[in-house]
Amino acid sequence: MADRAPSASGIGRVDVDDEVRVCVVGAGRAGMVHAENFRWRVPYARLEAVVEVEAERGARAAEELGLKKAYSALEEALASVPIDGVVITTPTFTHAELAVAAARAGKHILCEKPMALTLEECDLMIQAAKDAAVILQIAFMRRFDPAFVAAKRQIDDGLIGRPQIVRSLTRGPTLPPPWACDVRTGNGMLAEVNSHDFDTIRWLGGGSYTSVFSQASTLKAPELKEEYPGFYDTAVAVLRLDNDALGMLDGICPVDYGYDARAEVVGSEGVLLIGELRETATTRVTRQDGMVERHYGSWRDRFRKAYVEEATHFVACIRGNQEPAVTGWDGRHALEAVLAANQSIRTGQPVALPLTG
Amino acid sequence: MADRAPSASGIGRVDVDDEVRVCVVGAGRAGMVHAENFRWRVPYARLEAVVEVEAERGARAAEELGLKKAYSALEEALASVPIDGVVITTPTFTHAELAVAAARAGKHILCEKPMALTLEECDLMIQAAKDAAVILQIAFMRRFDPAFVAAKRQIDDGLIGRPQIVRSLTRGPTLPPPWACDVRTGNGMLAEVNSHDFDTIRWLGGGSYTSVFSQASTLKAPELKEEYPGFYDTAVAVLRLDNDALGMLDGICPVDYGYDARAEVVGSEGVLLIGELRETATTRVTRQDGMVERHYGSWRDRFRKAYVEEATHFVACIRGNQEPAVTGWDGRHALEAVLAANQSIRTGQPVALPLTG
Amino acid sequence: MADRAPSASGIGRVDVDDEVRVCVVGAGRAGMVHAENFRWRVPYARLEAVVEVEAERGARAAEELGLKKAYSALEEALASVPIDGVVITTPTFTHAELAVAAARAGKHILCEKPMALTLEECDLMIQAAKDAAVILQIAFMRRFDPAFVAAKRQIDDGLIGRPQIVRSLTRGPTLPPPWACDVRTGNGMLAEVNSHDFDTIRWLGGGSYTSVFSQASTLKAPELKEEYPGFYDTAVAVLRLDNDALGMLDGICPVDYGYDARAEVVGSEGVLLIGELRETATTRVTRQDGMVERHYGSWRDRFRKAYVEEATHFVACIRGNQEPAVTGWDGRHALEAVLAANQSIRTGQPVALPLTG
Amino acid sequence: MADRAPSASGIGRVDVDDEVRVCVVGAGRAGMVHAENFRWRVPYARLEAVVEVEAERGARAAEELGLKKAYSALEEALASVPIDGVVITTPTFTHAELAVAAARAGKHILCEKPMALTLEECDLMIQAAKDAAVILQIAFMRRFDPAFVAAKRQIDDGLIGRPQIVRSLTRGPTLPPPWACDVRTGNGMLAEVNSHDFDTIRWLGGGSYTSVFSQASTLKAPELKEEYPGFYDTAVAVLRLDNDALGMLDGICPVDYGYDARAEVVGSEGVLLIGELRETATTRVTRQDGMVERHYGSWRDRFRKAYVEEATHFVACIRGNQEPAVTGWDGRHALEAVLAANQSIRTGQPVALPLTG
Q1: pLDDT tier at D185 (50, 70, 90 boundaries)?
Q2: H/E run at residue A121
Q3: Has residue D16 got a pLDDT over 80?
Q4: Which of A292, A297, B201, C60 has the most Cβ atoms closer than 10 angstroms to its Cβ?
Q5: More reliable by pLDDT, A183 or B8
């Protein structure tokens, strides 16, 4: 099987009979989730390469994945093995450069959220993918989670009428990495953790953002505030969409109790409650402990299936069987709202969207 | 207001405008539940008297209920204050005598389960009530619980088709009293605790029992087996109805974890799950304890509303506004199945129903 | 039993052995809930009078409650029968005048929410109650709901650590009355419906409001916008407390699907989910309909027990057995936040709290 | 990679670094579940062959699985490609012959339930596997379901004390195939559907069966009773274990509402509720439909993860990383109880276990 160039017409795609060859960039937690999925659980995919700048971590990843070695740079991998799709899971500030490089090499791209640090980076990524006629999918995996998918379908079927309010939340057990906690080098928790909620509100609310107001506090890790100016660990936001639907989100990181991602859509004819904290359908009842169930401790467990479905969708798009469902524009819209929310936190004022240059 | 004799035609009833005057016999746990309800929570009812043989307990009850005194015998109460209805909550072996006395005095009767110790006693009670044209209601309060009522209505509306299997269970935190644990003087846990399940299976299953098979073990309080021959604390039973529906029940007393009463009806077009262990719609989630909810610890809490509704129904029947929903025949049928189940436990064989003299 | 004046020292109270005599003002929906509770379900209470300006409705209420007649004015009732406590359930704009009159007559007061239309009215009511040494309880009945009570106790016990975010919502099937929809004569849905949420956030969040930001839309009944300037049927708000906890609430009225009141408190060591939509623990599963449960259609059903507990608390306070748990100050704080939220909706800006004269 | 013979010592196993090569026999519904799992979702497994006697179905299966062809007989497949493990999913009456053939060829065996038609067949299979030192795993996949696994672990950890009652149920939407409905050629629903429940009771109850009593009815498909003597579609059974724990199970096939598999274990210190009907954590609430959730319609969906875990376990055992968790003896015990239950249905009497030749 020789490497395949994108077709002249539109998005270049591999033959349906062939397996899609994937390179995962980054062997951190998210990277390993993707790598293991492409290795073992995604039909018609073949994990060909893993790229990791940290040598020891790369070697360990290669061993776990049954690969001969890990590459230290994307270019090295692309030069060594035939690749159809690149999965970018490295820190946010590296996304744009990697995505543009992948696009220029004619590779399809699945990029972790948040898409990038700035709207300018987003624009570069979108343009590069367009120029190369490759897929640029942003990893909002909730769009592939069974609970969210069922909700979206019911909204589209009109079962709850017109959306009036969308609530979405994400609370997780681990702090974003230091560079993300520092608002001089990252966009904070709202970007690293709540990107999903911004996307969910727009996706399920069915409109475009027209304004955001956000408030934040530092209650769980106040000691970090000295180190990282602008650091916050608790935030809420209110969004308005151009169809007059209202959005609400909240985020806390780190939260002590586990991993929590739920949403709710109130429509003119009904309401949808999406997701839950409970992990396993086993209930123990004892006098001493009460009625006890196990809850999610990690996004890896909560969205295990969603990650596989997301990867499967990426492969199906590359093979030409599906149309990309989450594009660079979705990533850019979410980032724009995050940037505006951070501005609102700083100024104490609501911020109109879209942001004006 | 003078005492009112039953009317000549059928069941004697008090005028709709009047309050129904109630005497509760027995100031134990069940007695106090009834007494408090008739005192505070049942419209058009007035608690006039409490009867309790144990003087100190009677005095305490009277005080709690805001009554001047407690009577030591039913006849004393009936001779002292005008009464329309008598509520019998004393040990099972006293039911028949008290009920017959109340009936002969022209008083309507609400009798706790199990109805009596023997079928002969049941027959005496039914005949006495019939002769006096008074109501004889057996306290199967589950028939008034919102969850069970909703299920019954859905079955009657045909929403799950024809019942094929009815499962019912009762597990409680406290042993029946010693006389009931001793099968020489009582009918054991199946009578004192699982009477409700026998009634539920017949009520929701929509047929008459044709056979029962039961198995028992003594796993929780084996030390009682020496004291009480035939004692068991764990039992299951399988029933067949004449419409070929099958019934299953189980009981454990004492059970360590709380109070548990649930049922399930599988029909040809659907299933009904009835009741739950959870008491309060408050969920706490912490890393250490997991996802925790409060569950029922007592039948008083689980069936709080059912007891009020049951009492309200009794009053409504006396006032002529409703037809009695749970009669002496229902009590007799349940007892017959209990006796047969105990026989099955002893012999290891299924027992046909109805029992033949 | 003669009428009893308040004692010289502090709050005047009736003797513990006596029943508390209650007058309910207003025989609308909320008024009848209170009247029926004081008539049938509140120990040591006696419903003595109902006041209703609309003659026909008053007569109907009296009949349903087994009273001889209804009074057309509070003064008439107070002049006719001995009364210990007055329950005010009339439209908001009448609260202050009635409460002041009741206080001046030495009667304890249970006043429906919202407490009044303006902060000046609140101040008059608080002062009048203080001067007369009578109880002024505001009817935030959620504080007596088992789910909310359990949550509050767990927060106080430190089980979820320090509150970081409190979310609360109320959505109901019926529009507020016309005078309330018109922001020239009322304070809109946020006052009539979401007062509870403002109170919940302060109560469970454990701090005082420092700011509020609110957004509203008119999506369900846009035709009313012409009639009532400023009308909205959909609103969200973000609050900040002085302990840096953040609050979020939403409201929709009318909402098509039923009655919905839930809350959530995220603390530094855990989360509490409070309340649910499900009404009855009966689940039907059929191929065609799926897994179906009954949900709350009305606040009367959702908070049935809370209303009884609230009234029982009022009686217990009058009898000197409990300290008032929800005071005029609680009502005033909630109203202040409502007024600020309405101002935020009008201006598009956050509003600082407390409001400055 | 050459074919590998079992090692001389004990169970023969493949090298850890190698992939396990699998042949699935039978391309019916269960066969395709296994084949797809080994093809796409089981790490270190490689689906090498599918065997299907029906040519057209075999061709379709091969295409779906990306295999060049399907084989028409196990011997043909074994002669053509190197195979380490054989998965038997054909009708029950073929299990013994296929398993013995596979064992004699030195292949490890994963055999669908029920294990076989007779205890003699079970014995042959167990002996053949023992002689060949190959794994004989019976496909009681519930032992790998997260809810059942969590329950088992909690029992083993002593969290609910000593098991007193185990309840288990299976109800499914589709009739067993004709040969299984006919008790002259099969063992009916209790074998084909409720084998799992018999196994669950023994596994979670922690003892050996000492007796069974069963009752059956024909309520859903009575027309089949003429065609198939002894046919029943509704059954319940009571089991006793040698530790005096009691077991209860029920089964209905076809059941109209979906697929249902739940269990419950009551212990001396608590209770475990295992499994649920709800499939997706999305709740829709509308006035008209109530509170609606999606439930399981098929065992494929309910036990999707369990099938993958079961297959993964099979591969891990072959690779020497795990000890076989469900053996031929487990299959034989379940069959023995099924045979005794069918005898009980015929005779109306309880049947002692183990069965005596």
Answers
A1: confident
A2: helix A119-132
A3: no
A4: B201
A5: A183
Classify the phi-psi angles of A116: left when phi > 0, otherwise alpha if psi is within -120 to 50, otherwise beta: beta
B277:A285 CB<8 A: yes
State the residue for tokens 């929403």.
B159
Query: Exposed, middle or buried: residue C238 (CB in 10 Å: 0-12, 13-18, 19+)?
Result: buried
Averaged pLDDT, C168-172: 98
The per-residue pLDDT for range D270-322, each reduced to its tens digit, is 999 999 999 999 999 999 999 999 999 999 999 999 999 999 999 999 999 88
**Alpha-carbon gap, residue A41 to A20, rounded angstroms:** 13
Per-residue pLDDT tens digits for C239-250:
999 999 999 999
DSSP code per residue over B28-55: SHHHHHHHHIIIIISTTEEEEEEE-SSH
Number of Cβ within a 10 Å radius of residue B142: 27
Q: Which residues are CB-contacts of D226 (< 8 A; sequence separation ≥ 6)?
A: none
Residue B111 parent element (H or E):
strand B108-111
Helix (H) or strand (E) holding A48: strand A45-51
**Predicted confidence band of residue D26 (pLDDT cuts 50, 70, 90):** very high
Answer whether 0.90 is exceeded by the pTM.
yes
Three-state secondary structure call for residue D301: helix
Using CA atoms, how far apart are residues B343 and B190, in angstroms rounded to an integer?
11
Q: How far off is chain A from C218, nearest CA to CA, in Å?
A: 8
* Chain C contact for B347 (CB, 8 A cutoff): no
The H or E element that residue D216 is part of is: strand D209-217
- Return the residue in A262, A283, A285 with the most chain B beta carbons within 10 A, the one to mutate for interface testing: A285
**How far is it, in rounded angstroms, from Cα B151 to Cα A44?**
49
Token pair of D164, please?
């007193």
∠ CA C201-C260-C151, nearest 5°, is 45
Here the tokens at position B226 are: 């020496």
Half-sphere exposure of A196 (CA within 13 A, CB side): 25
Task: Dihedral sign for Cα B4, B7, B13, B18, please.
Answer: negative
Report d(CA D178, CA C52) in Å as an integer.
Answer: 73
pLDDT at A6: 41
A254, B225 contact by CB (below 8 A): no
The number of angstroms, rounded, from the C-alpha of B77 to the middle of its chain's C-alpha atoms is 24
| Smallest Cα distance from D232 to chain C, Å | 22
Q: Are the C-beta atoms of A35 and A65 separated by less than 8 Å?
A: yes
Q: What is the mean pLDDT of residues D144-169?
A: 98
The C-alpha atoms of residue B233 and residue B256 are separated, in whole angstroms, by: 12
Q: DSSP 3-state assignment of B83? A: coil
Q: C115 and chain B: CB distance < 8 Å anywhere?
A: no
CA gap A248, A266 in Å, rounded: 12
B241-289 pLDDT per residue, tens? 999 999 999 999 999 999 999 999 999 999 999 999 999 999 999 999 9
Give me the residue label for tokens 């599988």.
B266
B41: closest CA among C63, C87, C39, C62? C39
Strand partners, A51: A25, A71
- Cα B37 from chain centroid? 16
pLDDT number for residue B318: 96
Q: Would you call B269 an interface residue with chain C, using a CB distance cutoff of 8 Å?
A: yes
Query: 């360590």: which residue's tokens?
Result: B256
- Read off the pLDDT of residues A135-192 as tens digits, 9 standing for 90 and up: 999 999 999 999 999 999 999 999 999 999 999 999 999 988 889 988 888 999 999 9
Check if the interface score ipTM surpasses 0.85: yes
- For residues D248 and D235, the answer to whether their CB atoms sit within 8 Å is no
Q: Is D327 helix (H, G, I), strand (E, B) or coil?
A: strand
Q: Is C256 close to D285, i.e. CB distance below 8 A?
A: no
Report the pLDDT value the prediction gives residue C357, as an integer from 0 to 100.
64
| Neighbouring-strand partners of residue C209 | C241
β-pairing verdict for B278-286 and B136-138: unpaired
